[in-house]
Amino acid sequence: MAQSLSEVRYEIALANRMLANEGVLDAFGHVSMRHPGDPSRYLLSRSRGPELVEPSDVLEFDLDSEPVVPPTARLYSERVIHGEIYKARPEVTAVCHHHSPAVLPFCITGKELKPIYHLGAVIGTKAPFWDQRDEFGDTNLLVVKPEEGRSLARALGPHWVVLMRRHGATVAGTSLRDCVFRTIYSCRNAEYQLEAERLGTIGPLSAGEAEQAGEIHQQPGPLNRAWEYWVRRVEKKGEAPPRLSTKRGAARRAGLSGRRKAAPRGAKKPSRKGSR
Amino acid sequence: MAQSLSEVRYEIALANRMLANEGVLDAFGHVSMRHPGDPSRYLLSRSRGPELVEPSDVLEFDLDSEPVVPPTARLYSERVIHGEIYKARPEVTAVCHHHSPAVLPFCITGKELKPIYHLGAVIGTKAPFWDQRDEFGDTNLLVVKPEEGRSLARALGPHWVVLMRRHGATVAGTSLRDCVFRTIYSCRNAEYQLEAERLGTIGPLSAGEAEQAGEIHQQPGPLNRAWEYWVRRVEKKGEAPPRLSTKRGAARRAGLSGRRKAAPRGAKKPSRKGSR
Amino acid sequence: MAQSLSEVRYEIALANRMLANEGVLDAFGHVSMRHPGDPSRYLLSRSRGPELVEPSDVLEFDLDSEPVVPPTARLYSERVIHGEIYKARPEVTAVCHHHSPAVLPFCITGKELKPIYHLGAVIGTKAPFWDQRDEFGDTNLLVVKPEEGRSLARALGPHWVVLMRRHGATVAGTSLRDCVFRTIYSCRNAEYQLEAERLGTIGPLSAGEAEQAGEIHQQPGPLNRAWEYWVRRVEKKGEAPPRLSTKRGAARRAGLSGRRKAAPRGAKKPSRKGSR
Amino acid sequence: MAQSLSEVRYEIALANRMLANEGVLDAFGHVSMRHPGDPSRYLLSRSRGPELVEPSDVLEFDLDSEPVVPPTARLYSERVIHGEIYKARPEVTAVCHHHSPAVLPFCITGKELKPIYHLGAVIGTKAPFWDQRDEFGDTNLLVVKPEEGRSLARALGPHWVVLMRRHGATVAGTSLRDCVFRTIYSCRNAEYQLEAERLGTIGPLSAGEAEQAGEIHQQPGPLNRAWEYWVRRVEKKGEAPPRLSTKRGAARRAGLSGRRKAAPRGAKKPSRKGSR
Q1: What is the DSSP string of C188-232?
Q2: Residue-level pLDDT at D225
Q3: Which residue, among A245, A175, A234, has the nearest Cα to A24 in the 3D structure?
Q4: How far is it, in rounded angstroms, from Cα D128 to Cα D110?
């Protein structure tokens, strides 16, 4: 495992804060990452506003979205979005669910979101549209039941962005950075498309352009340049997540099994730092 | 009384600042709360910009919107909005009046504001539209007379959000947190609806969805997650209200009767801290 | 003279910064005030970005917009806007010229700006539209010559806001606070009208409403509440103008004649603080 | 050479940060300047987000966009935009390439961007529209090959702003300040035009107005006033670039040949400060 779990949990907290800082997430929405050492698990914060997430908030779940260690804190009710996409798409290692203002007008009208500039090609050739009502009738629109999560994952299919009617969007990525990049630039694409729809006739990317431009951010140059930029913006505001004091203590506190075995819970009292 | 009056006044100041920080209130607008120990009274700041309100600014009023203790400071002229809604709706314990940019286009055109995404279901199934001119002819559009407040309360009826033509909106809640949540997410809904109206045909929530989604924020998870997020954003900017130094002195200074009896006014000079 | 010149110059610097902070002014635009002791003079900053103006930048001009003391610094080329309005309107004691994003779409299209909510009634019953080309043909669109300023003042007539085609707007007031209030809320009105024009049919204020609502901000309550709010927002950012160290030295440095006599220029070297 | 190379590199870093701070650049985009002492070279940062650029990041390139000193860091892949424009336009001494939200709707629809207010006259009488697909078929839309850069430079022709279909814009200037001013105010013009297109019929500048107003910012007054304003805004946020400790060491570190001779590379280890 190239990256320590401690580092992974830090990066997940950071990704949450970056997406909040760039206007994608508000009080709601979340980013997860597949466990780097065990593809049958994923890492996701306990329930709290994304810009507040700390490494010690990041917990481990199996792909049925059950916490590996019985939790002491409240969990996000929409975890199945993550678990079911990880099940359906082995190559996906990060998922973001959001209600960005940029995509909501598309979610409300059903207007097709399509790549209309080079960086918007992160959307891929198609962003499917999922209407929960088709299969489940009247709900509260949250994706809480496993079958709701599976239905969403089916709608996503082999694509990278799925719009959720009257709700928001979910974005998949092949790495945490890929997922953050796709999330931010699909939102920018949505903003520009919204304005362009009113200004005139859109000349969208051709299939060939969409394919070739879709690979730009796969190059380490652009991907890392953007990541450095978003990280520094968080840091300059003094909003970087706190570092965990020790890896062992932190893993225990957060219910994270560092060596793939659940640490005996409650064996030690959580330190004061970890419990906030 | 579960919550001390001192804490209540702090939370009212905080709610004012949170709503200013999230772009709902500017120099104008106000949030009140029903007195936790006496349903025939409510608590509201003296007249000042919401993002400047301090606990010591929060005064006590009867439901005719008369101050319990003769005031030394200028009061909001539109207090009757609060008093008349508290009279008409016993289950309402918090009220916000605002001129948010998000709702003004609806207030100006009479276009119906309707829930168009899950969190927008806080609006309820209907947001009535009140035109002061219908009953009172030409006015300065402020809601100052008791009969104007009563007319507005009648228009609100059993709903949670009422739009006021050429003026703004008023939002009711079953708790301060409920009221803040409804205010912020009804504004977000308005913003997205405005954009969506231009982009295509809106597929609104069905009645069943509106009802079910309208209960999401009644759950402690989402409600508290959002509250923590808005509070922390105020705190991170160094904008949290100052704490009162002592409860007794503060209550006296602000004309707040801690035990349901008016403290003899002027018995002691206000401390320097309280008088700013 | 109730207010010292030192205080007046501080308030002019503050008003410039407030209007920049609220998004009305950027690198360009300016606010002036009639001299409180001599109606045939007015006070305006030397040429610099409004959010950088300091009390020591504020100079004295006659109504032909000539500096009372030969200046050492570059002056705004559009001073005649101020001088000619002060000549034409004895009751006007403050003027703001701006290119706010809010009004530009109206300046470009000629669409009528009209009061569409209670606070927008600061516009008055009409905002005239001035097209420099009508009288002067092709120019660089700046208002530099006295006859251009006089033409603009004639277009303003007895009103409070005049739109300038392909350029911006100019706002008059009966006090500095009145002028700032009219400027900010006429811009807000423009923003809401722009959105409302797209959303549906505007139900504008009736003449009676416009008249009555137009007096709201003449009351000390709302006017001072808004002023306190805008000032505090500038102060909280650490952006309040510096105070002049001494009145006499400062007046001399800035070419301001404290007792209506021009101080002998260059008699003393400017202090280091005053010269920045 | 009036300006030292050290100062030039500081100003280039500053210009990058200013344009990021004013919302023109995000993780992408770049500003270059022709070498003040050798018109056959230009100066451009290594590849990183514009708001992070430091003087020590600024490298020297020949007009074929090859680095003068073999680089140790990753370079922008779109350097040919700069080199080919410097080749084609001897009077151009600064170039900015950007994807500002303001221009994207025009780049997507092909709607003509035209000067519609006095400051927007920086665009010049025409902003040509370049569609890479016309000449090169499907690409990833980046401008990487020399022939792509030459094609763009031909499209720009004698003008100052060229829109790039489904990509962004490139702006030329006769000095760094001129280029920054043209970039920011052409974006503002785009924003206002976008709004005005929806509000009514645009009354554009006449040719005579465009020509005369296009010279406003050539005057030192407006140009320097705006530059001071943008610089101070960066400085007030604590975002000004760091100063290089010593010119010699810095030039060596950055691969910049102070005296037009390449310093022997690797002769000395970069100092710790230079390597971050």
Answers
A1: HHHHHHHHHHHHS---PPPHHHHHHHTTGGGSHHHHHHHHHHHHH
A2: 95
A3: A234
A4: 10
Pair type for strands B161-164 and B129-130:
parallel
Q: Which of C182, C197, C209, C219 to mutate to test the interface with B (most CBs of B within 10 A)?
A: C209
Backbone dihedral angles phi then psi of residue C162, each to the nearest 5 degrees: -125, 130
- Give D 78-97 residues with CB within 8 A of chain A: none
Residue of B22, B51, B78, B148 with catalytic role: B78
CB contact under 8 Å between A166 and B117, yes or no, is: yes
ipTM of this complex > 0.90?
Answer: no
Kindly report the number of other CB atoms within 10 A of residue B47's CB atom.
Answer: 20
Gap between the Cα atoms of D70 and B239, Å rounded:
51
Task: Catalytic residue, from C78, C147, C191, C211: name it.
Answer: C78
Helix (H) or strand (E) holding B60: strand B58-62
Nearest to D202 among C109, C167, C239 (CB): C109
Nearest-angstrom CA–CA distance, D206 and D115: 9
d(CA A181, CA B230): 26
DSSP annotation of B55 reads G
Is pLDDT at C139 greater than 50 in this prediction?
Answer: yes
CB-based burial label for A209 (10 Å; 0-12, 13-18, 19+):
buried
Quote the pTM value: 0.90
DSSP secondary structure of C35-77: -TT-TTEEEEE-SS-GGG--GGGEEEEETT--BSS--SS---T
Strands, sheet with A161-164, edge to edge from the N-terminal-most edge strand:
A58-62, A41-45, A30-34, A94-98, A168-173, A161-164, A129-130
* Contact by Cβ (8 Å): C171, C161: yes
Which residues in chain D are contacts of C77 at CB distance < 8 A? 221
**Diameter over CA atoms, chain B:** 64
DSSP string, B125-174: S---EE-HHHHH-S--S---SHHHHHHHHHHHTT-SEEEETTTEEEEEES
Q: Where are the alpha helices (DSSP H) in chain B?
A: 5-21, 80-88, 104-109, 132-136, 146-156, 176-199, 207-213, 220-236, 247-254
Q: Share the mean pLDDT of chain C.
A: 90
The greatest distance separating any two alpha carbons of chain D, rounded to the nearest whole angstrom, comes to 65
- D 159-188 near C (Cβ less than 8 A): 188
Q: Please list every residue in chain A whose beta carbon sits closer than 8 Å to the beta carbon of residue D79.
A: none
- With CB atoms and an 8 Å threshold, state whether C51 touches D230: no
List of chain D residues whose C-beta atoms are within 8 Å of the C-beta of residue C110: 200-201, 203
The residues near D171 (Cβ < 8 Å, ≥ 6 apart) are D95, D96, D97, D98, D160, D161, D179, D182, D183, D186
Q: What's the Rg (C-alpha) of chain C?
A: 19
CA dihedral B161, B162, B163, B167 (to 10 degrees): -110
Mean pLDDT of D172-185: 98
Q: Measure CA of the first residue to CA of the last residue in chain B; give whole Å.
A: 29
Nearest-CA distance B197 → chain A (Å)? 8
Find the residue in B nearest to A197 (Cα). Answer: B199
Cβ of D28 within 8 Å of Cβ of A225? The answer is yes
Tokens of B24: 């709902």
Query: Would the CB atoms of C229 and B52 count as touching at under 8 Å?
Result: yes
CB atoms < 10 A from the CB of A158, how many?
Answer: 12
Encode pLDDT of D223-243 as tens digits.
Answer: 999 999 999 999 999 999 999
**Quick check: B272 contacting C, CB < 8 Å?**
no
Report, as residue numbers or ranges, the catalytic residues of D.
Answer: 78
Q: Kindly list the residues from chain C whose CB atom is less than 8 angstroms away from the CB atom of residue D228.
A: 48-49, 52
Measured CA distances, B201 to A102, B95, D27, D64 (Å): 17, 33, 34, 51
Q: Is the pLDDT of residue D107 over 80?
A: yes
